[in-house]
Amino acid sequence: xxxxxxxxxxxxxxxxxxxxxxxxxxxxxxxxxxxxxxxxxxxxxxxxxxxxxxxxxxxxxxxxxxxxxxxxxxxxxxxxxxxxxxxxxxxxxxxxxxxxxxxxxxxxxxxxxxxxxxxxxxxxxxxxxxxxxxxxxxxxxxxxxxxxxxxxxxxxxxxxxxxxxxxxxxxxxxxxxxxxxxxxxxxxxxxxxxxxxxxxxxxxxxxxxxxxxxxxxxxxxxxxxxxxxxxxxxxxxxxxxxxxxxxxxxxxxxxxxxxxxxxxxxxxxxxxxxxxxxxxxxxxxxxxxxxxxxxxxxxxxx
Length: 302
Prior knowledge:
Elements: E1 2-6, H1 10-28, E2 33-37, H2 43-51, E3 60-65, H3 71-75, H4 77-83, E4 88-93, H5 102-110, E5 112-115, H6 124-134, E6 138-139, H7 141-151, H8 155-168, E7 171-172, H9 174-180, H10 185-197, H11 201-213, H12 218-237, H13 243-248, H14 253-263, H15 268-285, H16 291-301
Parallel strand pairs: 1-4, 1-5, 2-3, 3-4, 6-7
Helix pairs in contact: 6-7, 6-8, 10-11, 10-12, 11-16, 12-14, 12-15, 15-16
């Protein structure tokens, strides 16, 4: 049996994989588990591992990490599927596999695909509070909301920030978060967009240049602008135009409040124009335009 763990929730994938490996070791011992880093092995070695019968145990679990780093293995994924022994269970950590590829389409036909999507932003604060409690820490819900807005929505990064905070305090406060957690590009981009719609284009450009100094890629900034503009468009077209409506659509309370504040000064026609302008910007920076020049001009003319 072949199982593929995929999705953007790396923490959930890691937890699921840890449980599977622990269960296999508990039931079969060390001979019942084989871990393979596909970025360090050739395709023949990986295929040999899944087709060889277990030694001293009835079944074994083969875990394949980083398959996206092994082009040869991806080209021979059908062989891996065909040659897997009946007594072998294979788990592929496939969160970074290209879902447009032939390898992925082949796996979808023959493997058990387990998807772990990233949690919605309004679900994360409760999860962060629970994670803090597991570490023996105290974190108020309102401060968890602030931590998510500051650090971003990546659960793996949020766990890292909690681990960092656990070193300095057992009772996390907003001031602790300000002192020890760096503002994520996503959070900075919201502030940049806020400056744009407040009519302070120069401040928006200054924030953009600061992000570029931090080596944040222009294409990533455009993707985050797209995400923020999507939230803004939800607020502009929401019926009713309320915080509860946006929370129901997946926004966090903090994000909903900020978005509604901006949306009051944006008409539906303006929102459509902003989407069209951002679409043109995305096309330009992928073709002929200089990304920095195109983005700064966009911020100055929005």
